[in-house]
Amino acid sequence: MRKIWRLQSFLLSSIFAFLVCTTASNSAEKAGNFKLTGVDGKTYELKAVAKDAKLILLNFWEVNCKPCQKEMPEIVRLYKTYEPVGLKLLLVSRDTELTIPRVAPMVASQKWDFPVLLDPGLKVSQIYNVKFSPVNILITNKGEILLRLEGYAPGNIDELEKKVISVLGLTEEEVKKLKEEYSKTSKSEEPKDSNTQEEKASVDG
Hints:
Blueprint: H1 2-26, E1 35-38, E2 43-45, H2 46-51, E3 55-61, H3 66-82, E4 87-93, H4 103-110, E5 116-118, H5 123-127, E6 135-140, E7 145-150, H6 156-168, H7 172-186, H8 194-204
């Protein structure tokens, strides 16, 4: 009887553990798919971008958003550092009718080489429940949301970078080499100050 009781207890414990693990794996929030046109005139779909990536960073942004301007150099640094190992960046502009004409000039002045998508109807913001800018959402190539950071605060991008390094399984030596390579290439690609460009855009209005 004691052996049977132990066996039953073991089986029940195993079933419970399996159910907990299954529930946890199924509880990961899924990223909603979308299609948007970029300032380059091309159409981008999240699922299509994910096929060529290991991680996708969605950054919700606006030209008049001061916190966005503060964090953008760090977002660009993060992207350019880890893009060689599978990180993709999609910048989603939340600019509407009044400010959307300023998006393309800003992109050109900063020489951004990643997709900047136009969402004047804020449809993608609705999908991801984004009410303001900036918001950063890290997504796997399987469409699972790993991290969501709302607003800008010192240390936000550090948290984001740690998550990227962890998910990509990078060693300290690999991270060091990636940062060194970025440092070499970034010296020849220094953009103009985004605050200055925004002030000029406001004047040109």
